[in-house]
Amino acid sequence: MKTKFAASVLSALLYAQGLLGFAALATVLLKERAQANELVMGSDTPSGPSLLVVR
User: Fold this and answer.
1) pTM assigned to the model
2) In this predicted structure, what is the pLDDT of residue 41?
């Protein structure tokens, strides 16, 4: 009986570790994607004088 309990606890711990690893990977990928979007948006802004004239 103790072996089944130990096996189920180990299985639950490994499952939780897998979920945490997946969440960490998703966080890193989303962070890199956000940084890449910031670089693209930053390069879209014109560096010269603005053509917009307010009257």
Assistant:
1) 0.55
2) 65
